Amino acid sequence: MYRWCTDEVEPQERFDYWREVRAKGLFGVTAELERERRADFFGEFSLRQLGAGGLVELKASPYTVERSTSDIAYTPGDSICVYQQLGSGGWFGGMRGSDFAIANGSFATSHTDLPYRTAPLDAGGFHLRILKIPVSRIPAQDRRIRELTPKTFNDHALAPLLAACFADLGEVAAGDDGAGDDGAADATSLVQTSLVQALAHLALIERGIVRPGSRLGQAALRTARLSQARRLIARQLQNPDLAPAMVADLLGVSVRHLHMLFEAAEKSFSQTVTDERLKRSRRLLREAPERLIADIATSCGFESLATYYRVFNAAYGMAPGDFRARVPEGH
Predict the structure, then answer these.
(1) Where is the HTH araC/xylS-type domain positioned along the sequence (predicted)?
(2) Most buried residue among 61, 86, 239, 326 by CB atoms closer than 10 A?
(3) How far apart are CA 153 and CA 56, in angstroms?
(4) Cβ(142)–Cβ(201) under 8 Å?
């Protein structure tokens, strides 16, 4: 992963460096800011290569951005972008069609090689994630992909699926920073590729280019629903009555469909729940040495202390107290 921040440059040079080297050279856009405001400018970003895509997270003081025809000619991208707004909001304009605002937590899509202008809506500045996927790496080939002017997501049913995929992609990428053996790295790469493809096709479903019932559409929806199901499980772990029917209802699918999603994964629904409860309990054993083991078991959704001891010992070959005793102080 590549990270960069304006703190690495002298204050009087920060915006000029951001504009010429980062904005124009890396992102292919023209950045502008009134000269009297440049001394206080701050910007940072990270860039990860994930599967076929590149994931950028960007934070910056307010300024205006334009992707003009000359910028496009200078730095063609031929990619689609899926944007996730994390800050207070942003404005897009200058396209064929109406201007629009994108609110915190919302999504937008575009093709890289169409003109636009954008700026943050308030003094909070920019904070967003951008997943950039080359058109050549997207199985759904359609000339309309290159006509995607910037547009917000209007399908409220798809937005939670995008949020789940984006969150999983960030977590898988963070875990990859400490990846060890080649087998684990290969598995991580496959997950990243699957999530990137799902995000690309969800965006194309929303824009009417990929049909939800097509092979590509169904594959994207399965991947995204599985991501969302896992996140719903994580939010409900403390509930000892956590069951497939509860998650299926929250996900808006049948129990049978939920089980089919997990059949394609490495672990079943019940195995996933148990694994997540054990992982959370291990974290609490490490981070809260003063906390009673019985309290940890209850907070992770185990129906009894005896069940927790039995499941923990079967998974790790030791009791929770022995695991806690082996954790070095401060870890």
Answers:
(1) 227-326
(2) 61
(3) 19
(4) no
Residue 146's identity, in one-letter code, is R
- What pLDDT, on a 0 to 100 scale, did the predictor assign at position 96? 61
Is the pLDDT at 34 greater than 60, yes or no?
A: yes
Spatial strand order in the sheet of 79-85: 2-5, 43-50, 53-60, 126-134, 79-85, 107-111, 151-152
Distance of CA 173 to the CA centre of its chain: 9
How does DSSP classify residue 312? H
Whole-number Å distance between alpha carbons of 86 and 278: 31
Percent over 70 (pLDDT), the chain: 95
Using a CB cutoff of 8 Å and minimum separation of 24, what contacts does 20-25 make?
23/65, 24/71, 24/74, 24/75
DSSP string of 210-244, one letter each residue? S-TTSHHHHHHHHHHHHHHHHHHHHHTTT-TT--H
Rounded average pLDDT over 165-191: 74
Q: For 208-219, what is each residue's pLDDT tens digit?
A: 999 999 999 999
At residue 188, does pLDDT exceed 60? yes
Give the Cα separation of 329 and 311 in Å (integer): 25
Element (H, E) at 102: strand 100-103
Q: What is the DSSP string of 23-59?
A: IIIII--EEE--GGGGGG--EEEEEEEETTEEEEEEE
Give the residue among 215, 217, 230 at the shortest CA–CA distance from 261.
Answer: 230
Phi/psi of residue 213, nearest 5 degrees? -85, -5
Query: How would DSSP label each residue in 104-167?
Result: TT-EEEEETTS-EEEEESSTT-EEEEEEEEEGGG-S---GGGGG---EE---TTTHHHHHHHHH
What element of type H or E holds 287?
helix 269-287
Separation between Cα atoms, residue 37 and residue 121, nearest integer Å = 17
What is the value of pTM for the model shown?
0.87
